[in-house]
Amino acid sequence: MKKVTMADVAKLANVSKSTVSQYLNKRYEYMSEETRKRIAEAIEELGYQPNIIARSLKQKTTATIGVIVFNMLHMLTTQVLHAIEEECQKRGFQVIVCNSGDDPDKEKTYVETLLAKQVDGLIVFPTGKNEDVYRRLVEERFPLVFVDRMVPGVEVDSVLLDNFAAAEMAVDYFASNGYRRIAIVTPPLVPYNVPRMERLEGFRAAMEKRGFEVGDQNVIAAEPAALPRELKKRFVEPERPNALFAINDLTLMGVLRFVKDAGVRVPDEVAIINIDDVPFADIYTPALTTIAQPTFAMGKKAAERVFEQMKAKKADGPRVFRFSPTLMERTSIRRGKA
Amino acid sequence: MKKVTMADVAKLANVSKSTVSQYLNKRYEYMSEETRKRIAEAIEELGYQPNIIARSLKQKTTATIGVIVFNMLHMLTTQVLHAIEEECQKRGFQVIVCNSGDDPDKEKTYVETLLAKQVDGLIVFPTGKNEDVYRRLVEERFPLVFVDRMVPGVEVDSVLLDNFAAAEMAVDYFASNGYRRIAIVTPPLVPYNVPRMERLEGFRAAMEKRGFEVGDQNVIAAEPAALPRELKKRFVEPERPNALFAINDLTLMGVLRFVKDAGVRVPDEVAIINIDDVPFADIYTPALTTIAQPTFAMGKKAAERVFEQMKAKKADGPRVFRFSPTLMERTSIRRGKA
DNA sequence: TTGTAGGCGTTATCAT
DNA sequence: ATGATAACGCCTACAA
């Protein structure tokens, strides 16, 4: 198939492999116009394509970075990936995408495989349960960036939403429009899932700041699939919430499923706000007020950090990059009467 | 950083590189239990990780396949990618994902880069405007599969929806529920975009089969962003449509934007059906009747085909795999009175 | 300005 | 059962 090698080109052009190599690397400086042309012709004629693998072996760099995500289907993932790809494209890098499915074992295997494949850097949406693996990378100063989640106890550049602020923003917005019976809707709370916990904390802090109580009655945690049922249960209680804060797009779906099935009117009976600016937010009725993550900026930053780390080769102190959420005011909340 | 090589392991274990290599490739057959253990220990102690690049150079296979898509953000893409990744994962392959942004030049560059990186196969969501590039691959018998779109004149395994049937399905369903004034809503029609044309043809055929006329009045083609405006224009005309067939998720958004802004009631004033089972289909009000593509099956098949081609190494005649759409009956169409 | 030679880390072929 | 040695295709001194 493709067996044309540099040697073939060299022979046809009547020069040595080195010269061809020079040519390929655009070091024309001391090359006669004459040979340059001959080489170009030979390449053309043979349809020569350099073998980057061979080059990589020598140069110890592959111009590819690995990205391990825990959920490829998640909208955030897709958008961040897109930005990463774009940033890599600019620099002539390629991206190997791996989906861990939030399984730490798979994640670990992927890290090892990618390292074996000599990727130049790694961007990970971590499961959060592989501290040892990450720590080794950090010790080796291997270019690594976390996105969306971070791993407590592992000092790595991390790109994430200012979750605390996002939750505060939700509560503030509700409160300033007269809502008090605010509940947070979230997947099960597990300690290693940092964003989840941060959102809860932000929620709690903002509530308490206003003297609103936070207890079981306004923390609704369940698997997305079980959410509608859980919400229905909550809504028969006397002091049912009149404002729901869904901490991500998946829980939002649970909430919307519920209001539809139960015939609860939005925003008259219950107001809704959520994190993640879902694509249907403004065609839904009522248009959904959301809190958007700057996904593109986050992806870009993540890529930029790996590249900087690749350059630096000295750990210039890992940093956490917090991105500010932005409120997208629409109509799933009744305005006024603060 | 990672300079531990096979030679180091060999030295520490007091064996030759060859033996270590055997060990790594699990050819224990003629290896003493003793040396086996020594090697294992050495590897452990040094934290040795094989260099797959070096292996690839020798074996001429990289266990990675390249995927070039024209729009990473598209839902179909994401889901198909997911399936491809999963299928590759099973076989120990990795996936390099590239986004052409529907730009033929970028697409071409990516093909070249991926070949230079020695990927073992290529799955492409083609822009449709690089026949020459593809034809070369075909001549070289390079494992290649097209997804979603195909390229007329290039004989390659292609995985796509039965677009004709999908469009027929839409018309049939409308018609059998008493609708006559059916319009198709599509992005601009360009000849190299095969699915688009096929959907239009299916629409036309199904309409004519019933003696419904097809003309300018029921082909609404515009850039998604311009669709709401275009639809508004159409809806002031006397014989306005009472059924809209959106050929993909993007045009659906345009349609929904329009009905919301114009206050057109669904399904009372206009019924809607579309291709692509968008995630919010059943939380929308009314729940959207859609025509789903088996995205997962399509991705899986695409991956399987590349692997088969890699095995076969003989062009066993390129095939087009048509996947059947499935109707997801919900409530954006009034039932009955056929 | 161009060529020679050695090496990158692994595998494969033969010996032993 | 294990080892020596030559590739794999490219890059890079250094030599000419």
Automatic annotation (TrEMBL), chains A, B:
Keyword set for this entry? DNA-binding, Repressor, Transcription, Transcription regulation
Domain HTH lacI-type: residue ranges: 4-59
Q: Per its record, how is this protein called by name?
A: LacI family DNA-binding transcriptional regulator
Q: CDD domains, alphabetically?
A: HTH_LacI, PBP1_EndR-like
Report the residue ranges that make up the HTH cro/C1-type domain in this protein: 2-49
Molecular-function annotations in GO: DNA-binding transcription factor activity; transcription cis-regulatory region binding
Classification from the root reads: Bacteria, Bacillati, Bacillota, Bacilli, Bacillales
Reading the lineage from the top rank, the first entry is Bacteria
